[in-house]
Amino acid sequence: MNIVIIGRGGFSYVVEEELSKLGSYNVVGYMDASIEVSHIKENRYYLKMFDLDYIKDDIYYFIAIGNIEVRRKIVEQLNIPSNRFITIISRDAYVSSSVEIGNGSYIGPGTIINANTIIGSHTTINTRVTIEHNSKIGDFCLINTSSTLYSHTTIESNSVVKVGSVIVVRQPE
Where in this chain does the record put each PglD N-terminal domain (predicted)? Predict the structure, then answer.
């Protein structure tokens, strides 16, 4: 599968490394605000933001930008069908087979996501996060490294959970 990574900051290097470990992805280019003129160099696309003129139909995308507001605006402005955004799940993560994950989301290494959990679209679950069963994470969220979410936790869309947070909610009776 041919991928264009949107964003060229630190998170893009993490994403590209995870894609190479998964093996079925081929990074064919980058789109970033720092690219002034779209061009092709050494068989890779280098695209200024929102320039889709070079893109072919067989391209998929991943937004490798941590800032959730910027990520949301990019999705809105690009107007690409949601099924063109890939979801990346690290081979070093455990994700229960009953978990639902939206398009464009990232699940980092060492993460555990237990049964009957729902993860929205364009949400980043960083390294070593634990999300217990029956939880719900909305769209465009960022759950930072080493956070723990107890069972039945709901995180609303457009939310950030800080590094090392522990979230415990009252259990349903």
Answer: 2-78
